[in-house]
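Forgive a beginner's question, but might I ask you for the amino acids of a protein and the tokens describing how it folds?
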Amino acid sequence: PQYDYDLPIGTSSAHISLHIVTRNNEVRSLIRIYNKKLYNNLLKSKDEIEKEIGLKLNWKSLEKNKSSTISIVKKFNIKDENTWNEAIKWQLDMAKKLYNAFHDKIKKFN
């Protein structure tokens, strides 16, 4: 199973999404973007954004879908309850970094 939780980022064109994917033993924090022009505009700032966050992000245009994603993924042993607090803390920290790096750029585009 997969568990998702979405957070606003100030526009209906995008949101932050937090995922727990039990079959892959991973947690994800991502930005889901519903506007290809917005995604392409953000892609132009990829190096600057990744430098600001301090991590390499996974950029997926998903041409066949209506949305694109920019994500960060980390493996955790989801079946071990002792890792849950660490996994959730990591996920929330990444969500804050994504918000801080993308909010103003997305707002400026809209």
